[in-house]
Every structure is written in structure tokens, then in C-alpha cells.
Amino acid sequence: MTTNEPRPGPDRPGYSPGGRRPLPQQANPTWLGHVRPEYYRQAPPNDRGGFQPVLPPAVAAASALRRGRSSAGLSGLLLAGLFLGFFSLFLVLPFLLGSTGVSGFVIGFVASLIPLGTVLLTVRFIDRWEPEPRPLLLFAFVWGAVVSIAVTMLLQPYFSAVAGPASGLDYTTFAVTVQAPVVEEFAKSLGLLLLLLFARKHFDGPVDGVVFAFTIAAGFAFTENILYFGRAIAESSDPGTEFAVVFFLRGVMSPFAHAIFTGTTGLIMGFAARRWHNGLSVLAFAVGLVPAMLLHSAWNRMGADFLATYLLVQVPIFLLAVLVIVLLRVAERRLTRQRLTEYAAAGWFSAAEVDMLATSGGRRSALRWAKSTGRGPQMKALLEAATQLAFTRQRILSGRDVPAHLLDERHQLAEIASLRAAVVR
User: Which of 142, 220, 223, 272 would give a disulfide with 85, using CB separation of 3.0 to 4.6 Å?
Assistant: First the structure.
């Protein structure tokens, strides 16, 4: 049974020697939500009095602050991204049209929507528990689809001139196995660094890092696919066959290649984001680039033994990525349950409401019930608000920008009370 009361003694879970306040039992439910004793505090008590629980009739036992409502800071970052994207188009679009022709560009654009949709649907699945603000996701996509392409085009000649001769490789081998992995991963991950530095309130863990990285990579792969698909149409004597082969290789066998490369950087930066230190963020950016570049280079080196390497190396890497994502989602749910349990102990939720808010089945049942009564949007907002509240508390307990998050907590608790009233009215 979870309690908010500290339990002293070396035989108790969470005990910390040296005179520091011990942690309550289960305060650290997962590796994702680790907090230290010196930062722990009880949830604020509910002094508003009793409330009517929000529960579907058949589930009684079993963000209001919508993150899509962007703050001025999110709007500013989005505007900066759109500004950079607009001017990057003057470099990227002529290059694409010159390489593919108009017909190749149109066919490549349409065909590229298929792998793009696959990756973005995956992003939506990963991001369902604690959705990121749409302005930030749009920034990430624009950065990947346009800005990172322009950065790549600008940096490649200089990188080739400096590093090419020193590598001792012929130009083609160097361009494929060194230049492309280094420059492209740097260009994509630069967007992650900007998000971490300027939207740190929303980029505060490994799940956020994976979501933003996948979105940036989806945009980059979308534009790159337009180029490859369009060239297959424009430069081949048998465009139909060539296009089918290229589409199968890039659109069917490897739609997640760029996502996995950049996802490793996002994962590492997400862990660093929990410390909220700019120097550590930049260090994590540099460290996270290493596995991304190595994976990218290994992918580009596959040649005559492509199928064997794909099955023996790339498929296991993909399955490992799936496993990591599943573990991250499980950890998010356990963390949400624990933090909401602490609010329940302070009188903000009933135990049955925590079960409803912190499980996928409970959420689905709640939404079905609310939609049947015409209050689906209110219930959806309540579910998102409760999740956001749980993660706000996690930030407080981690000692990150505590005064600002305490203010957020007060606003979120008041908003949850209003949403509960709107659902049960």
C-alpha cells in the first residue's frame, strides 16, 4: 500500500543514511521517475472539500491544460522554425526540382507520404500517454523536412574538403559511410538541441527525446525520399521498375531507419534533460551523436550482403528499439500511477479514479462512458490534465525549477477541479 508519510529506518524502502529525510515507500516506482530524498515533498492537501468522483458506472472498482495550447515561448520557437523553414525552401526546393524534374518530384512527394505516415503514426502511439504540444511537434517536423536538409547541403562541401583527404577513402565511399552519417545526424540533432534548450519544460525525459527525434527524422526521411523516388523516375531508362525497387527498399524495408538513428540521440538527450543543465545538455548532444552516426554509417555500408546484414543486424536493432519504447511507455504509466496516488492521499482523487486515470483500460472505458453522455471532450481533457499533473509533480520532486512548477501545479489542480465538475454535471 502506498503512503505519503515518510517511513524512517534502514529496513524501510527509500531509506537514506546521513540524516536526510527518507523517501516514502514506492516513491521511486521506476528508473524513469527516480527522485532523491532531499527533493521529496508531500502533495498539497485538498482544502476545497469533498468532490464527486469522475467514474463510469461500470468502472467504479476497476491537459485540461491542453498541451496544444501553446505558451508565448512555444509560439516563438514555432515561428522561428517556420521562418528558418521558409528560407530553407529557397535552397531545398530548387535542388529537389533540379534533381527529379516536376513529374518525378510530384510522384516522389506522393509516394513519400506512405513511409512518412507510418513513422508519424508510430510517434502518435508513443506520445499518447503524455502528448507533446503540437507547436513543438510541428517545429520538429519542419526542422527535419526542410531546415536540416538545408544545413546538410551547406555543410557537406566544407566537411568533404576538410575531412575527405584525411580519411584516405575514395570520394564515394567517404560520402556514403562518413560524410552522410556525420553531417546528416548533426543537422537533424541540432533541432533536438534547440528543443532541449528552449522548450525544456516539455523536453524533460527519454520519451520526449524519442518523440521529438522520431518526428525530426520522419521529416528528414520524407524529403530525402522525395529525392530518391523522384530520381528513380527521372534518371532511369525503366522508371517503373527502378521506382518499385527504391520504394520497396526505402518505403517498405526501412521507413524507420532515420528514426532509429536519430532516436538514439534523442534518448540520450532525454536522460540528460532530467538534470536541466545547459552544459550537460550540450554534452549529451555530442555523446548522443556517436551511436546515431555509427548506426547510420553501418546502414550505409551494407552492400552486396544487404539482405543478410538486414536480417541479422538491422532487424534485431529495430526489435531492440521497439522493446525500449515499450519499456518507456510502461515506466510512464507506473510513474503516472504513483504520482496520482500521492495526490489521492492528499484528497484530490479517489483510489478508483487513480485506477481509471493511470491505466489504458480505465481511460478507454472512461472515454466511452463520457462520449455516451455527450462529455467526451471534457473527459479527454481531464485525462490529459491528470497525466500532465503527474509529470509536473515529477519535475517538482526532481528539484527542477521548483517555484515555476509549483505554480503550474496549483493552476493544474484548479483546472482539474473545474473539469471534474464539467464531466459530472
Answer: 142
Flag whether 192 is in a domain: yes
pLDDT exceeds 60 at position 172:
yes
Name, in order, each residue with C-beta under 8 angstroms of 417's C-beta and a sequence gap of 6 or more: 48, 51
Domain holding 126, by residue range, is 72-301
Q: What are the φ/ψ torsions at residue 303 (nearest 5 degrees)?
A: -125, -110
In angstroms, the CA 140 to CA 91 distance is: 19
365: number of Cβ within 10 Å? 18
Q: Are 65 and 411 in contact (CB under 8 A)?
A: yes
Which candidate, 370, 413, 375, places its Cα nearest to that of 392?
A: 413
- What's the domain count of the chain? 1
Q: How far apart are CA 86 and CA 385, in angstroms?
A: 34
DSSP string, 118-168: HHHHHHHHHTSSSPPPHHHHHHHHHIIIIIHHHHHHHHHHHHHHHHHHHHT
255 CB-near residues (< 8 Å, 6+ apart): 115, 118, 119, 221
pLDDT band at 22, cuts 50/70/90?
A: low
Residue 208: which region, alpha, beta or left (left: phi > 0; alpha: psi -120 to 50)?
Answer: alpha
> Quick check: helix, strand or coil at residue 200?
coil
**Residue 73 confidence (pLDDT):** 66
Instruction: Using only the alpha carbons of the chain, give its radius of gyration.
Output: 24
Contact 293, 268 (CB under 8 A): no
Work out the angle at residue 271's Cα, subtended by the Cα atoms of residues 270 and 273, and round it to the nearest 5 degrees.
60
Q: What is the DSSP letter of 310?
A: I
Residue 189 confidence (pLDDT) above 70: yes
- Residue 131, CB-side half-sphere exposure with 13 Å CA sphere: 20
Read off the pTM.
0.84
Report if residue 196 sits inside a domain. yes
209 lies in some domain: yes
Q: Is residue 52 part of a domain?
A: no
Would residue 14 be called left, alpha or beta, if left means φ above 0 and alpha means ψ between -120 and 50 degrees?
A: left
3-state secondary structure 1-31: CCCCCCCCCCCCCCCCCCCCCCCCCCCCCCH
